[in-house]
Amino acid sequence: MNPAVWVQRHGARIPNRPAIADGETVHATWRQFADTVARAATGLRNRFGLVEGDRVAIVMTNSPEYLEAMFAIWHAGLVVVPVNARLHRDEIAYIIEHSGSKVAITDLDHAGDVQSLVGSTGALQAAPIAPGDEWQAMIGSPPMALVERSGDHPAWLFYTSGTTGRPKGATLTNRNLLMMSLSYFADIDQVGPEDSILHAAPLSHGSGLYGLPHIARGALSVIPHSGGVDAAEIASLLRRWTGVSFFAAPTMVKRLAGDPAITGSDLSNLKTIIYGGAPMYLADLEDALAVFGPRLAQIYGQGETPMTITGLSKADHADTAHPNWRDRMQSVGVARTDVEVRVVDDNDQPLPVGEIGEVVVRGDVVMTGYWEQPEASAETLRGGWLHTGDVGSFDAEGYLTLRDRSKDLIISGGMNIYPREVEEVLLMHPGVRAVSVVGRPDPEWGESVVAFIVADDADHAPSTEALDHTCLERIARYKRPKEYRFVDSLPTNNYGKVVKRELREMLRAETP
Question: CATH for 410-510?
Answer without folding.
Answer: 3.30.300.30
